[in-house]
Amino acid sequence: MISAFFIFNQKGEVLISRLYRTDFKRSIADVFRIQVVSNSDVRSPIITLGSTSFFHVRVNNLYIVCVTKTNANAALVFEFCYRFISIAKSYFGKVDEESVKNNFVLIYELIDEISDYGYPQNSEIDTLKSYITTESVISSAIAAEESSKITTQATGATSWRRGDVKYKKNEAFVDVVETVNLSMSAKGTVLRADVDGHIQMRAYLSGTPECKFGLNDKLVIDKNSQGGASDAVELDDCRFHQCVRLNEFDTSRTISFIPPDGEFELMRYRSTSNVKLPLRVIPTVNEIGTTQVSYNIAVKANFGTKLSATNVVLRIPTPLNTTGVDCKVANGKAKYVPAENVVVWKIPRIQGGQECTFNATAGLTSTTTRQVWARPPIDVDFEVLMLTASGLIVRFLKVFEKSNYHSIKWVRYLTKASGSYQIRF
Amino acid sequence: MAANMRGLTQFIADIRGARVRELEEKRINKEMANIRKKFKDGNLDGYQKKKYVAKIIFTYILGYKVDVGHMEAVNLISSSKYSEKQIGYLAVTLLMHENSDFLRLVVNSIRKDLDENNEVSNCLALHAIANVGSSEMAEALSEDVHRLLISPTSQTFVKKKAALTLLRLYRKHPTVIPAAEWALRLVSIMDDQDLGVVICVTSLIMALAQDHLDAYAVCYTKAVDRLHRLVIEGEYSATYAYYKVPSPWLQVKLLRLLQYYPPSEDATLRSVLHEVLQTIMNNSAEPSRNVQHNNAQHAVLFEAISLAIHLDTSSPLVGTSAILLARFISSKETNVRYLGLDTMAHLAARADSLEPLKKHQGTIILSLRDKDISVRRRALDLLYSMCDTDNSELIVGELLRYLKVADYALREEMVLKIAILTEKYANSYKWYVDTILQLISAAGDHVGDEVWYRVVQIVTNTEDLQEYAAKVVFEHLKSPSTHESLVKVGGYILGEYGHLIANDTGYSPLEQFQVLHSKSQFCVASTRSLLLSTYIKWVNVFPEIKPQLINIFERYRHVLDAELQQRACEFYSLASRPDDDEVLQNVCEEMPPFPPRVSALIGRLNRKLGDTEDKRTWIHGGKEMNLERHGNSRKATLGPGSSATGTATVTDTADAQDVMSSLAGLNLSSSGDQLDLSRVDVVAPRVAVGPSVEKWFNKLTCSAEGLLYEDVQIQIGIKSKYQGHLGQLAIYLGNKISVPLTSFTSTIHVNDSEALSATFAKIPPNTLVPRTQSQQLLHVECKKVFSSFPILTVSFLAGAHQSISIRLPISVTKFIEGVKLGQADFFERWKVIGGPPREAQAVFPIPLDGTGQLDLVRYRQVVSGNHLEILEDVDPNPSNLVAAGVLHTSVDGKVGCLLRLEPNREAKLCRLTVRSTSEDVAMEVLRLIEKLLRSDCS
């Protein structure tokens, strides 16, 4: 399993260094710095040198690195890294060099807690928060009481939930968040379109409630086993929170669970078929001689008129030898950003069915070595509320409890794209 | 400039301040977009252009790709302001690749700057040429650079840079520079007043002279003269003394330059050089306390020792240097130890006797354990060079012991050297086999295939050795871990000669088989196939273990490796034939001895030596190796064009030959066509001509003194005196103009140095004061009969560089002494000599004098001018001339010579007959006198 855990900054300086086992010296960090941080050719998140493997995840110019000498489960190691990031986020907001430096004591405490001798342990944020606090020290009596609760909770049937939760108002919030990834060729054919979705739940329910969750009627959860109708919603790779009873899911396809208290991620899924693309982009880009490039780009909102896309940002690449761009837009604002070699076109809101156009001419300068422009893709970011690109809908959420109280349930949908909604031209 | 380029300072500050790479990239993208815009809009003044180009340069040196601004840089070069020009040149040298098309645009601007009479522009342009060094530039501008170098109006600073620029161009494009053509002019700059210029020019000449030894031969005298002035006369300005050592860099370069040439024959030069070296060694005898002073002194000293070794290994100087070196190799300083060992290796490689070195053998062997690896290497080289039959066992033993602990980097070379030494100096074959097997087991990984091939060859060819070798190999194989090479040797030797020891206890066939086969599973396929061959040989000689062997073949028939499988199948069917079958016996006949071959090992070792800028003048190894190599290199350098082609072919062929062909002992370093190339003679300098030159010359051939040459600037006269085979010429050189003739050089070119030697009594002064005359003494010695006149080349700087070559009136007849003979004596000798071939005769027309009579007076003059004694009353006809003389030569001894001249007025013809005991002399005397008589020199 994981033998060492490091956090490096952009320059390769070690911010956090924790060795779980004795099979490495601390100097192993130098190997990573030399082989990965200072080597710009390395793009793979896993580097194996001899019998040593380095797994790294980059976040805000930080490298979160796990090192192992054994044949560890790579998915598990990466999950551990991402889990660390989400824990850190919930403890001190932003994960960057500054915050890591400010909270290094806390981080050491956390990484000691979530891993023992390199084996990942309970990493439930709410549970962790009950005994690793950033607040001032509680008096010893209460602390003793609290700690005894932890023991019962950790050894009980539902290790993720305490028994004695009480709320005046019983509420449950369900957020379905989908990220659309698209890559479209210059001819307009879809090369790749898929949806990464997760269902986030915030449960403020008393006692130990039993919840039942229902999605679309025509839901195909495991594509391979059944044929599936053409309009059915197909989900691949469903992953559930540990509270979901998997044997029940396997036999009757119902999702039933006793939720942890507070916020958690109920499930995560992926969908690759029948993806509805919320925005259509039709680019026409012509190079006129060697001195000009003309752009004509249309964006069409491809959903119901009641909905609207917000925070739409198009990044339209320009050739490397651009001297200036002359833009004409009807909606939003367009501006040439030389630092990134793109024209950024921001549209605050597009109503469903609406179409926006962009016209521009970029002037070029002559260069020494005549190079063909690589034409990188146009990148689109947006958010659409109350729409799921995969078509997933929450049909019902039932809560059963011994006291049989009334509970209020809220469901919200969000489809967004950030960084990987790309159209070639 | 720095004060007002605010934008640039800000830009650099921003980039320095960028915390992460992305920010830096963004800042640069932004700036580049701005620059593109500005350049596109045009209308930039010089300052703006300079600023933006400077930013582009900064971006470029940060490692970003830049594809604008080249045109602007080219424009900046032609600016009149220094700062703009400088940035322009900087951009050109940095941004433009040597094959860039933009360079064409720059060539003209650079030429303009070279032509300008401004030191700074000249220097900038020279810098650019040297930095870019493209072939196009070299072709277009090398003439201009050369002009700057030789121009008398150039500043010393420019001259220095021009010399170094030429050096750089020559190193990159050796063919572009007409090295031989420029030789005299370049060498003349070695007399420059400024030592800095001399250092630079010497560097240039060093590079050129390596490839054009003969064209640059003049520099030998110059270098000796310069050294003499520097070391003995102390003629240098105080700024060039480095810790009291006069310009050590120049000294080192000059000493090195002299090593490229074979030792001079000229006694004067030799004695001067000897004096110089002696002085250098005396100066360095006392180590000083100051480190820098020591360094400078040592640098010069080591080079001086090298030169001394190069000149003559038996001179007392070398004796002194051996003592000095012995002190150095036990010095505390690593560098000194290194250099000491290196130079000692040079000495060992060249010296006739290794005795002085052997005294220090212990110290050298200790150096093998020095803490510095480069010192260890040098110690190894030295031991390799100083090894001979007497100390080979000791040295090889020591090397073997050291090999086990030696550095990995050193082992391969050590193995090769041990193998060569063992073979070369082996006293007994037993020792050879023992050592090599020990070597293979000690450093198996580093033993090349050549080494074990060689063992097998030697064992096969030496019958007495076979049994012993088989036993020793067997013992070695018994040790638990053996290297694969040893298994191969074992497989071969036991297969061939295993039966010789099979009857001894402990060496039974079964034991041999078990030992060898136990190793096979650790070996690669090629070794295993060799082992299979061994087994089939054993099937033939050891029928008792046949079942086991057949069993093995059986198993190997199913392995995947094609080679192994095929062998196994073939051997299996061969082995399973009936016992009385003769095929097996015929197949497994004992190997015939190999044809005698030259060891391929030495070739391998020499191939490993890399070539650096300055060629080494020697190689490691004994004296013979150096002599052989010297012969080869001499041939190569004599070839037309540069020697680079010569050496290239050598290395090419050496690389191309594979191991097998090198085993056959083909030493390709002197192939046939190369010998042909070397036949081309050295081109003699072109002789000045003109009717008056001819007249002066002819007059001098029959008189002892007179005018040899004269023009508006210079007058050359001669006085000569001959005594036996020796002669002395006083050459009077007169400067007729009112400025001094500087860099005055006079050299003598003798076509046939075997027959005639001509040397100046001392090194001629290098300036000729206005309106004065200087005298130079020339010693000549006739060794054999010679036919061509020596040529005197005088070159000097009087505004431009001038060079005059004139024949010196030194002919064979000058060494003749007249003899008085009576009539009887004369005819007796005349008859004894007899007719052809020892008689030479010619009939030719002669001019008559003004009155239409025979010009008897002149004939007499000619004959007696050629030092023949005219004998009166020998011939009855008064108009006939009879003369006799003896030619003195130092090698061939004395040669008698008789002459008869019979002019005929009516026919205007004359018959000249010369008889001599040597047919060459007869021909030559006839030729000389006929020529004089024919010419109408009234």
TrEMBL record, chain A:
The protein's location, in the record's own words, is: Cell membrane; Membrane, Coated pit
Q: Which GO terms describe its biological process?
A: endocytosis; intracellular protein transport
Q: Which SUPFAM superfamilies match?
A: Second domain of Mu2 adaptin subunit (ap50) of ap2 adaptor, SNARE-like
- Give the record's membrane topology: Peripheral membrane protein
InterPro entries on file: Adaptor_comp_med_subunit (IPR050431), AP2_Mu_C_sf (IPR036168), AP2_Mu_N (IPR043532), AP_mu_sigma_su (IPR022775), Clathrin_mu (IPR001392), Clathrin_mu_CS (IPR018240), Longin-like_dom_sf (IPR011012), MHD (IPR028565)
**What range(s) does the MHD domain occupy?**
169-424
Question: Does the record's keyword annotation contain Cell membrane?
Answer: yes
Q: Which family does it belong to?
A: Belongs to the adaptor complexes medium subunit family.
The protein's name is Mu homology domain-containing protein
Automatic annotation (TrEMBL), chain B:
Source domain of life: Eukaryota
Report the function annotation for this chain.
Adaptins are components of the adaptor complexes which link clathrin to receptors in coated vesicles. Clathrin-associated protein complexes are believed to interact with the cytoplasmic tails of membrane proteins, leading to their selection and concentration.
Gene3D superfamilies (alphabetical): 2.60.40.1230, Leucine-rich Repeat Variant (1.25.10.10), TATA-Binding Protein (3.30.310.10)
Q: How does it sit in the membrane?
A: Peripheral membrane protein
Q: What protein does this entry describe? A: AP-2 complex subunit alpha
Q: Which InterPro entries match?
A: Adaptor_Complx_Large_Subunit, AP2_complex_asu, ARM-like, ARM-type_fold, Clathrin/coatomer_adapt-like_N, Clathrin_a-adaptin_app_sub_C, Clathrin_a/b/g-adaptin_app_Ig, Clathrin_app_Ig-like_sf
Keyword check for Membrane, yes or no. yes
GO MF terms, alphabetically ordered = clathrin adaptor activity
High-level lineage: Eukaryota, Fungi, Dikarya, Basidiomycota, Agaricomycotina
**Keyword terms, alphabetized:** Coated pit, Endocytosis, Membrane, Protein transport, Transport
Which Pfam families does this one have? Adaptin_N, Alpha_adaptin_C, Alpha_adaptinC2
Which PANTHER family does the entry link to? ADAPTIN, ALPHA/GAMMA/EPSILON
Family, according to the entry, reads as follows: Belongs to the adaptor complexes large subunit family.
An example Gene Ontology biological process: intracellular protein transport
Q: Which residues bind a 1,2-diacyl-sn-glycero-3-phospho-(1D-myo-inositol-3,4,5-trisphosphate)?
A: R6, G7, K38, Y47, K51, Y52, V53, A54, K55
List GO terms (cellular component aspect): AP-2 adaptor complex
Q: Which residues form the Clathrin adaptor alpha/beta/gamma-adaptin appendage Ig-like subdomain domain?
A: 698-809
Subcellular location, record wording: Membrane, Coated pit
